[in-house]
Design a protein that fits this description.
Shape: globular
Largest sheet: 4 strands, antiparallel
InterPro entries: DSRM_RDM1, Nucleotide-bd_a/b_plait_sf, RBD_domain_sf, RDM1, RDM1_RRM, RRM_dom
Strand order of the largest sheet: 3-4-2-5
Number of helices: 7
Distance between the termini: 32 Å
Organism: Equus asinus
Subcellular location: Cytoplasm; Nucleus, Nucleolus
Number of strands: 13
Structural class: alpha+beta
Main location: cytoplasm
Pfam family, one: RRM_1
Radius of gyration: 24 Å
């Protein structure tokens, strides 16, 4: 049976492995490296997280490992359960069991994660992106309170904004996927110097491209056939069509506005990640 792999954060329990009875000797960082080395042999990993055992469980660690593919997770579970792997005692590996009441909305991967997933299934030279438009939407406007306006002393603000439209091309599957993104950052010219303005301009421009790239990948679906061959399905967003009036399209674009300053510089994991809380999963009961 074919498996569908979307460009989204894997949250399904059949893509999540719980590994416990890890030795207390190595550090958490060393265990992370060892676990990644072992389990990445079965497929591309989204994350490996190592946690110390609860006090009632005694010294040691357990880990939560997420795959993009459920088939890869199943193979890894069967091959590694009750095996010593990298330590003297065997570890236990089970598929995650999510509480029925816990549900998460699927979150899109950020652009770096999308590229990692595309490189794994399509190959480094199996896809490309082409920027169709990169438009500077920066503007300047006068803002001030009533007293300042009365004296003619408004506070000058500039918003650094960029819009990007691009397409992701997968030539071996004759597939093209368009994407769009807008990023903006308010700038106070009375507080920011020329160098800061140029840096924010460059960062905002980069973030708009990253946003558009992620948007383009969201419309693609990787299809892994039983034979191991890869196919690609294109699923355009039905609510965004060229038939819409320009005013409606502008409203849709503005929904995608966000400020990189609010979440820290660079592309943020809020687009693709969430805190993997321990209480969302439970360890299987021991036999």
């Amino acid at each position: 049976m074919a498996e569908l792999v979307p460009f989204a954060v894997p949250t399904e329990s059949d893509k999540t492995l719980l590994v416990w009875e890890l030795s207390s000797g190595p550090t958490a960082e060393a265990l992370h490296h060892s676990l990644f080395t072992v389990f990445s042999q079965f497929g591309l990993l989204y994350s490996v997280r190592v946690f110390p055992n609860a006090a009632v469980a005694g010294p040691g660690f357990y880990a939560v490992i997420k795959f993009y593919s459920a088939k890869d997770a199943h193979r890894a579970q069967k091959a590694c359960d009750q095996k010593q792997l990298f330590q003297k005692s065997p570890v236990k590996v089970r598929l995650g069991t999510r509480h029925k009441a816990v549900q998460h909305q699927a979150l899109p991967l950020n652009s770096s994660r999308c590229q990692e997933l595309a490189n794994y299934y399509f190959g480094f030279n199996g896809w490309s992106k082409r920027i169709l438009e990169l438009q500077d939407l920066s503007d300047t406007e006068e803002r001030g309170n009533e007293n300042e306006n009365a004296t003619g002393a408004g506070l000058q603000k500039q918003s650094v904004k960029f819009f990007c439209a691009l397409e992701v091309v997968v030539p071996s599957h004759e597939c093209r996927s368009p994407g769009a993104g807008v990023a903006w950052e308010p700038l106070d010219q009375l507080e920011e110097g020329p160098l800061s303005f140029l840096m924010k301009r460059k960062t905002t421009q980069k973030l708009a491209i990253q946003k558009a790239l992620s948007d383009a990948f969201q419309k693609l679906l990787i299809v892994v056939l039983e034979s191991g061959k890869i196919a690609v399905a294109y699923r355009p967003c039905e609510e965004i069509t060229d038939a819409r009036p320009e005013e409606e399209r502008q409203d849709l674009i503005q929904v995608g506005y966000f400020s990189w300053k609010q979440y820290g510089q660079g592309e943020e994991e809020y687009l693709s990640d969430f805190s993997f809380e321990e209480e969302e999963f439970r360890l299987p009961e021991l036999d």
